[in-house]
Design a protein that fits this description.
The complex is a heterodimer of chains A (about 400) and B (about 150). With about 400 residues, chain A is α/β, with parallel strands linked by helices. Chain A has 14 helices and 15 strands. The two termini of chain B are about 25 Å apart. Chain B has a single domain, classed as Sufe protein. Chain: A (Alpha-Beta Complex), CATH 3.90.1010. Chain B has a four-stranded mixed beta sheet, with helices on one face. Classes of the chains: A alpha/beta (about 400), B alpha+beta (about 150).
Chain lengths: ~400, ~150
């Protein structure tokens, strides 16, 4: 098995289009990844053939829908090295963090306690903790980010104190591409009896993740960034933590029995899945996992490393361009600013060259402030990108320089 | 198809590079902030009113060429206008850029160069950001104006 990027690209119908009459260079997979045909087909097939509510009916269709939904959970669990009971379906990473902050957090964080984050977190791994801290009289403590965009274990060692209740850290920075040493961070935290939540949204499309190996207590990610559908995501939690946590949302499916004098809650993972789930989305995410497992992942990772090195090198050709985030071992994400041109203007001009990038603060305003820029342009690559996409980006940036000399 | 050169006209590039009235005004009688939460662009607009007239206007902040040029051209257009005339300009500009009503360009003088923005839906908020701040300043609102 070897990695053939052209064969991979042919599986993504969206990549064949020509915006503004130009070849599409899609370099915004950090925002959302495109979907291979097998994922689109799995969602369609679910609605064509198996659709009915899960865990409810006794008829053939309902059994098939439930089997497809629970089958997806099992495959996702195996893929990240978890037990299926530890895989809770959410709407995405944001909901996963909120669930942990509201359920685990409210039960375990009190006045004067500390929640340790890093300076490179996405707003979705900041604001849920701020809400909790405000409610409980706790405070956020922030691990600093250095000039290259990296965090240091020594800072974790220094900042994990007697009042630290949880460490919440991103695996891969969405804005910079930095890959954090989460396994070592978990080890440090555990040595002090502190659990760790890892935001894996940007990691799962790039890296093979084994939650047992990382020993993370909670690991959250979104389906849509790993070639699956939007509206579905996963919260992995260690069974003994999930079992001890109070439910978050109440409703159908999360109960064993209800009476007006009291309710018995269902076992995990169902305790945390109130209401009708996005069954088609879960099935689509299961298909995305199958698709990823069918690839030569080591080959894909090597391909992405090559793309990152090639792009980093070629971007130096553009006068006045500065890359923000230069930590070693990055994922294939490049954030940059250009002297004399605002990222939005860069984004619009690139769009007319068929190049799709993100321009803005990337939902990481504290990080932008850290680097003294209001916004950056971000080219985030996935395994379906090619050197041709990078060449088109460089060509587009030359056009930007012509207009903004 | 929208053409890039309709958006980035020479006048816009010039005002984006060298914005006019780009300063904090110490003796402002009304100020307001404009914030686009999606991109983080942010401008303060400063007015010195002499009775009902805008005796002086300036702005300060950071954003793209479109938002900066729009704020700069706005500041030039507003000087000496009454509050009612400024409100009228705001409405005309809004109709031209947000609703795509090109007929408004006639009454807008130099601001007409921003007409092309209407064909770039993702950039309309850039062009209208400072105007929302102006609107808030004229009404004496204390909350930052947003493009949302």
């Amino acid at each position: 098995m070897s990695f053939d990027v052209e064969a991979v690209r042919r599986q993504f119908p969206v990549l064949a289009q020509r915006p503004h009459g130009k070849r599409l260079a899609f370099l915004d997979s950090g925002a959302t990844a495109q979907k291979p045909q097998v994922v689109i087909d799995a969602v369609t097939r679910f609605y064509d053939r198996d659709n009915s509510n899960v865990h409810r009916g006794v008829y053939d269709l309902a059994e098939r829908a439930t089997a497809a939904f629970e089958g997806a959970r099992k495959r996702i669990a195996r893929w990240i090295g978890a037990d299926p009971r530890e895989v809770i379906f959410t709407r995405g990473t944001t909901e996963g963090v909120n669930l942990v902050a509201q359920s685990w957090g409210r039960a375990n964080v009190g006045p004067g306690d500390e929640i340790l984050l890093t300076g490179m977190e996405h707003h979705s791994n900041i604001v849920p903790w701020q809400l909790l801290a405000a409610e409980k009289g706790a405070k956020l403590v922030v691990v600093p980010v250095d000039d290259q965009g990296a965090v240091h274990l020594a800072d974790f060692e220094r900042l994990i104190g007697p009042r630290t209740r949880i460490v919440a850290v991103t695996h891969v920075s969405n804005a910079l591409g930095t890959v954090n040493p989460v396994k070592e961070i978990v080890r440090l935290a555990h040595a002090r009896g502190v659990p760790v939540l890892v935001d894996g949204a940007q990691a799962v499309p790039h890296l093979r993740v084994d939650v047992r190996d990382l020993d993370a207590d909670f690991y959250v990610f979104s389906g849509h960034k790993m070639f699956g559908p939007t509206g579905i995501g996963v919260l992995y939690g260690k069974a003994k933590l999930l079992e001890a946590m109070p439910p978050w949302q109440g409703g159908g499916d999360m109960i064993l029995s209800v009476s007006f004098s009291g309710t018995k809650f269902n076992t995990i993972p169902h305790k945390f899945e109130a209401g009708t789930p996005d069954a088609a989305g879960a099935v689509g995410l299961g298909a995305a996992v199958d698709w990823l497992e069918g690839l030569d992942r080591a080959g894909a990772e090597a391909h992405e490393r090559d793309l990152l090195a090639y792009a980093t090198n070629r971007l130096q050709e553009i006068p006045g361009l500065r890359i923000i985030g230069t930590a070693p071992g990055k994922a294939a994400v490049i954030s940059f600013v250009m002297e004399g041109v605002h990222p939005h203007d860069v984004g619009t001009i690139l769009d007319h060259e068929g190049v799709a990038v993100r321009a803005g603060h990337h939902c990481a305003q504290p990080l932008m402030e850290r680097f003294g820029v209001p916004a950056t342009v971000r080219a985030s690559m996935a395994l379906y990108n090619t050197r041709e996409d990078v060449d088109q980006l460089v060509q587009g940036l030359r056009r930007v320089r012509e207009m903004f000399p | 198809m929208s053409d890039l050169s309709d958006l980035y006209q020479e006048v816009i590039l010039d005002h984006g590079r060298n914005p006019r009235n780009f300063r904090v005004m110490a003796d402002a009688t009304a100020t307001a902030e404009g914030l686009n939460p999606l991109c983080g662009d942010r401008y303060g607009v400063f007015l010195r009113m002499d009775g009902d007239r805008i005796a002086d206007v300036s702005f300060q902040g950071s954003g793209c060429a479109i938002s900066k040029a729009s704020a700069s051209l706005m500041s030039q257009a507003l000087k000496g206008k009454s509050a009612a005339e400024a409100e009228d300009l705001f409405q005309r500009f809004h109709k031209m850029v947000v609703e795509g009503d090109a007929s408004q360009a006639d009454g807008l003088g130099k601001l007409a160069v921003l007409k092309g923005v209407a064909d770039f839906p993702t950039r309309v908020k850039c062009a209208s950001l400072a105007w929302h701040a102006l609107h808030a300043a004229l009404r004496g609102e204390s909350q930052p104006a947003t493009t949302e």
